[in-house]
Amino acid sequence: MSRRDAIDIAIVGAGVVGAAAALALARDGWQVALVEAREPARWRAEAPDLRVYAFAPDNAALLADLGVWDGIAAARAQPYRRMRVWDAAGGDELRFDADAFGRRELGWIVENGLLVDRLWQALSGAGVRLSCPAQLATLEQDGAHATLELDDSTRLRARLVLAADGGESKLRSLAGIETYTHDYTQSGLVAFVDHAASHEATCWQRFLPTGPLAFLPFAGEDGHRSSIVWTLPEAEALRLLQVDDAAFLRELDAAFAGTLGALRAVSKRAAFPLRRQLAQQYVAGRVAVIGDAAHVVHPLAGQGVNLGLRDVGALRAALRRQRGAGRDPGAATALARWARERRSENAVAAYSFDGLNKLFSNDAVLASLARGPLLGLVGKFPPLRHAFWRHAAGL
Q1: I need a labelling partner for 392 at 20 to 30 A (CA). Which of 114, 203, 296, 308 fits?
Q2: Is the domain of 177 the same as that of 190?
Q3: Which of 362, 354, 340 shows the shortest CA–CA distance to 303?
Q4: Band of pLDDT at residue 4, cut at 50, 70 and 90
Q5: Average pLDDT of the chain to the nearest whole number
Q6: Residue 2 has what pLDDT?
Q7: Nearest CA among 274, 286, 65 for reference residue 162
C-alpha cells in the first residue's frame, strides 16, 4: 500500500471483539483492514469449545444487527432463564428469574469458537480486508495517520487503529499505553460435565472459600450437561488438572454439594490464570484499545466478552456521528468521550468483581458472617435485584 493509499480503520486481533468491530464498522461504510496471526479452526458441533460466555441481551442485539446472531442461536446457544447464587458458609440464596423481568431468557451460554466462526464467515461479504496469517511488527504515527508494518512486509496506513489483540497486546505496548495489573494468584478451571438432574436452564454459582464454582447450562443432552468454571488457587487448580476423572468428580461433587446429582466427565480439563488488568488510557494518538487489550476482569460474573462488545457498540455509535458529519474517525475529539465513558464503566466493573471475589473467596469469620445476609438482602429487595441484572444485561 503506498503512502497515499490510506484506509479508514485497521484492527489488530480478530477474536470475538476484533472481528465484531471489523464487521460493524465495515457495515457502516468505513474501509476496514483486519490483521490476525492465524486463521481460527472451523467450529464443529461435535467438538465443543471449553471457553464459553454468559452472553448478554444487548450484545445479542448487536450481533443480530450484524446479521450473525440467528446463525449462532441456530447452531448452539443455550438460553438461561434463571440464576441461583449462594454461599457455602450458609445464609440466603440470591435468585434471578426471567419471568420477574418480563423476558423469555436472561441471556445465553455460547462457545467462543462458535462466535468467532460465524463472525469470520461474514467478514468477506462486508468488504473487510483480511491479512492472515500476519503479525504486527512495528507502529509509526504522525498527526494524521498510524502505519502498521506486518511481518510479511505489508504496510497498512490508517486514520484509526484498534488494538483488539488481547491482554498481552503488542499494539497497546507499541502505542505506549501502560496497564494497572493485579495477579489474583488464582486459576479458572474449565470443563464439561454431565449430571443426573436437569440444569433447568439455570446458571448456578456457589461461593467457596477458595473461590466461586459456576455450573453454566449447556445446549444438548436434554438439559443434563453444563460447562463448569471453577476459581481455585493456582496450585490447587494444577493438582486437579492432574488427577484422574474419578478423583476430580469426587472433589467437584463435594464442592457443589451434590446440587445436580451424580456427575460424569465428558471433556478434557483446562485452566487459565486470573488477573485484573486495566489500560491506563484508551487512546494514544491514532490508536485505541478495546476488549481484553483494554480490560481483563475476573470471570465470576461472566462479563469479559460482554464488556468488550460494549466497547465496540459505543465506538460504533461515536464513529457514526463522525461519518455523518464527514469527519476524521481517528480525531481526538471523536474518541475522547468514548474513551472516558468506556474506561470508567470497565473500571467500575473490574473493581466490583474484584470486591466480590475478595469478599467471597476467603474463610475469615466476619466475611463468612456477612456474605449470606448480603445475598439475602439483594434477593429480598426487588429494585436492587433488578438494577443488578439490568446492568449485567446492558439494558
Answers
A1: 114
A2: no
A3: 354
A4: low
A5: 90
A6: 40
A7: 286
Q: Are residues 236 and 89 in the same domain?
A: yes
Record the cell numbers describing residue 248, joined without a space: 476430580
Whether 251 maps to a domain, the answer reads yes
Whole-model pTM over 0.90: yes
Q: Among candidates 298, 355, 291, 249, which has minimal Cα distance to 115?
A: 291
Same domain, 269 and 284: no
Q: What is the pLDDT of residues 209-225, one digit of tens each?
A: 898 999 999 998 789 99
pLDDT tens string 39-69: 999 999 999 999 999 999 999 999 999 999 9
Whether 268 and 148 share a structural domain: no
Confidence of residue 375 (pLDDT cuts 50, 70, 90): low
Is residue 40 within 8 A of residue 139, CB to CB? The reply is: no
C-alpha cell of 333? 475529539
Q: Is 333 left (phi over 0), alpha (psi -120 to 50) or beta?
A: alpha
Do 209 and 304 reside in the same domain of the chain? no
Find the distance separating the first CA and the last CA of the chain, reported in whole Å.
42
Q: What is the Cα–Cα distance from 82 to 106, expressed in whole angstroms?
A: 7
CATH number at residue 320: 3.50.50.60
Q: Is the pLDDT of residue 381 over 50?
A: no
Whether 383 and 319 map to the same domain: the answer is: no
Q: Are residues 302 and 338 in the same domain?
A: yes
Structural domain of 242: 69-111+185-274+363-393
**Among residues of the chain, what percentage have pLDDT more than 90?**
77
Calpha distance 93→378 (Å, rounded): 9
Cα atoms in the 13 Å half-sphere on the side-chain side of 57: 15
CATH code assigned at 203 = 3.30.9.10
User: For residues 164 and 389, what is the distance between their CA atoms, to the nearest angstrom?
Assistant: 27
Which three three-digit cell numbers place residue 387? 438494577
Whether residue 57 is contained in a domain is answered as: no
| Under 8 Å between Cβ of 188 and 274 | yes
Q: Which residue has the cell 494468584?
A: 185
Looking at the fold, whether 100 and 176 belong to one and the same domain comes out as: no
Number of domains in the chain: 2
Q: Return the C-alpha cell found at 39.
A: 486463521
**Of 275, 277, 391, 280, whose CA–CA distance to 339 is shortest?**
280
58 is a domain residue: no
Query: Regarding beta strands 146-150 and 136-141, do their DSSP bridges make them parallel or antiparallel, or are they unpaired?
Result: antiparallel
pLDDT digits (tens, 9 = 90+) for 160-178: 999 999 999 999 999 999 9
